[in-house]
Amino acid sequence: MAPDLWFSPLALALLGLCVGSFLNVVAHRLPKVLEREWWLDVAENQLGDADAWRRVSGRKGAPPAAFAQAAQAISDALQALAPISLARPRSRCPSCGHVLRWHENLPLIGWLRLKGRCASCDTAISKRYPLVELATGLLFAACGWKFGAQAQTLVWCAAVALMVAMALIDLDTTYLPDDLTLPLIGLGLLGAGLGWTGVELEDAAWGAFAGYGALWLLAFSYRKLRGVEGMGEGDFKLLAGLGALLGWQLLPSIVLLASGVGAVVGIGLIAFGGHKREVPIPFGPYLVGGGIAAIFFGQTLTRLWFPTL
User: Fold this and answer.
1) What is the C-alpha to C-alpha distance for residues 250 and 237, in angstroms, rounded to an integer?
2) Is the distance from CB of 164 to CB of 20 less than 8 angstroms?
3) Terminal C-alpha separation, the chain
4) Between 20 and 30 A from 191 (CA), which of 5, 75, 155, 243?
5) C-alpha to C-alpha distances, 55 to 59, 63, 168, nearest whole angstrom
6) What is the CB-side half-sphere exposure of residue 289 using CA atoms within 13 A?
7) CA quadruple 213, 214, 215, 216: dihedral positive or negative?
8) What does the pLDDT look like over 159-209, one tens digit per residue?
9) What does the alpha-carbon distance between residue 143 and residue 160 come to, in Å, rounded to a whole number?
C-alpha cells in the first residue's frame, strides 16, 4: 500500500505545491546568482588576462590600465551587494522588506490567507506565485495519473519541475541556464539507461543529438541568411533534453507544436500587444509547452501530425 499512497496523484499534487513554491525562488534568484558569477568572472579572469588580450588585440604587453580599474570597480560593486543564494536570505516583501513568517510562506494557502497582499505594507503580491505552485501541483498529479504509483514517476516529476523553472526564467530574462538544461539531458539519458522512462537508451541518445543539432542547424542557417542571431544555445540544449527524455521519435511533435503556438502568440503580440519586431520573443516556454504535451499525449500528437505512421 505504501507506493499507492506516497506516489498517488494526491500525494504528488501536495509535493508539487511545495516544489512549485521552490521553483518561484529558483526563477527569481538563479538568474541573479548566475549574473553575479558572470560579472565576477569578467572582473577576475577576463579583464586581467594578458594572454587573452594579446590574442584578441594582436598586441604585445599587458591589457590597458583602464581594464584593471574596471575590474576593481566591478569587484567592489559586487562585494557591496547583499549575499544571495537559493536558500538565503529568507523570502521577504520586495516593497517593505517584511520577512515572511512560516505560515505566510505556505504554498498556495499562504497567498490565499493573505488575500494576495503583504501582511505588513498591504502591497499586492503577484498572482504568478500561487499560479506556479498550483500548476506544478497539477502537473505532478498528472504524472501520477499517467505513469502510476511507482518511484519512477518521480523522474517525470523532476523533469516537469526543471521545465517549469526554465520556462519562467526564459520569460523573465531570455536565459536558459546550463544549470537546468544539462540536468534535463542527464535525467533523460539516466532514466533511459535504467529503464525508468520506457525509452531505449539508443533512442534517448539520438534524441539528445537530434534535438540539439536540429535547432543548431536552423539557427546557423538563419544567421547566414539574415546576419542576426535567431535562437540561443539554451534552446538547443532544452530540445536536446526533451529528446533524451522522450526519444527522437517525439521531437517532430514537440517542434511543430512549439512553433505553431509560438507563431500565433508572436503574431498576436506584434499585432495587438505593441511588441516590437526587433525585440526577441523567448522560444523556451513554447518548447516546454510542447515537451509537456508530448509527455502526456505523445503518441496522440504523433498520429495527429503524421497519421500514416
Assistant:
1) 16
2) yes
3) 40
4) 5
5) 8, 11, 38
6) 16
7) positive
8) 999 999 999 999 999 999 999 999 999 999 999 999 999 999 999 999 999
9) 9
